[in-house]
UniProtKB/TrEMBL annotation:
PROSITE patterns: RESPONSE_REGULATORY. It comes from the Bacteria. This is CheY chemotaxis protein or a CheY-like REC (Receiver) domain. GO terms for biological process: phosphorelay signal transduction system. Pfam families: PhyR_sigma-like (PF22233), PhyR_sigma2 (PF22029), Response_reg (PF00072). CDD domains: REC_PhyR (cd17540). Keywords: Phosphoprotein. InterPro entries: Bact_response_regulator, CheY-like_superfamily, PhyR_sigma2, PhyR_sigma4, Sig_resp-reg_PhyR, Sig_transdc_resp-reg_receiver. The modification 4-aspartylphosphate is found at residue 193. The keyword ATP-binding does not apply.
Length: 265
């Protein structure tokens, strides 16, 4: 099998990486083209002692490092709102940390392979990834309103929220209380149960809040079937009780990562 045939299956993923790294489809694709041109011009210099995919990314990294100076992400091209928000967050992460995060989390390289690609030690790669995740956590700090009428569950959710570094603006047990708290102290995230203390609805409380301002919402409920009918727009984030703390943490991180209001100016 020729080198070109070996590399072909990996090119779409290299384009994905290039676009994420630069924040631009056109610039990312330019780096991929430059990588292929370098391989064609000097096939004997292509790393033959590693897996072809690893050699391909290694060649890309060498070109990127030698031509991109400070490695800053350029202004993003038009794309989906979520893509633009993600690019804005990645742009604020230090260059090597951004590369380490993308290579491990998105491209699936091991710590050792990533160390080879960016000329660092495995221990340094782990530190770089941790720094990148820490920066994302800082960017997505939020003030959270909890709508939950069961005291023990509310305390558990509040503990999860605070453990992630977020602030709790209040805990509401009824629809009216939830709306009043939201209007008094606008939250950046709402965690809501469906069935509330006075038989009012967390769904209605959320509708009232969203009528006043946009805010990401995560429903945590023992009655998911009420929101999963397929007959109307449904929430993006829905957690079923009893829940795992890790599930709630992941949902919070995901909801805030794509929320424009928490992107630093």
């Amino acid at each position: 099998m020729s080198l070109g045939q070996q590399l072909a299956p990996h090119l779409p993923f290299l384009r994905r990486y290039g676009r994420a790294l630069t924040g631009s489809q056109s610039e990312g694709d330019q780096y991929v083209r430059a990588t292929l041109e370098a391989i064609v011009a000097a096939p004997g210099e292509f790393p033959r002692d590693v897996d072809p995919r690893l050699g391909l990314y290694r060649t890309f990294q060498a070109i990127w490092s030698s031509t991109h100076g400070d490695n800053r992400v350029e202004p993003a091209e038009p794309g989906t709102e979520h893509e633009a928000i993600a690019r804005a967050r990645l742009a604020r992460i230090a260059p090597l940390s951004r590369q380490a995060l993308l290579l491990t989390a998105m491209e699936g390289f091991t710590t050792e392979d990533t160390a080879y690609l960016i000329d660092e030690t495995p221990a340094e790669v782990e530190k770089l990834v941790a720094d990148a995740l820490s920066e994302i956590d800082k960017q997505t700090r939020a003030r959270v309103l909890i709508i939950e009428d069961e005291p023990i569950i509310a305390m558990d959710i509040e503990s999860i929220v605070r453990d992630q570094g977020h602030e709790v603006t209040g805990v509401a047990v009824t629809r009216d209380e939830a709306v009043a708290l939201a209007m008094e102290d606008r939250p950046g995230l709402v965690l809501a149960d469906i069935q509330l203390a006075d038989d009012s609805s967390g769904i209605d409380a959320v509708k009232d809040i969203l009528a006043e301002f946009d805010v990401p919402v995560i429903f945590i409920t023992a009655f998911p079937e009420r929101l999963l009918t397929g007959e109307r727009p449904e929430p993006t984030f829905l957690i079923t009780k009893p829940f795992q703390r890790a599930t709630v943490k992941a949902a919070i991180s995901q909801a805030l990562f794509f929320d424009e209001s928490t992107v630093p100016a």
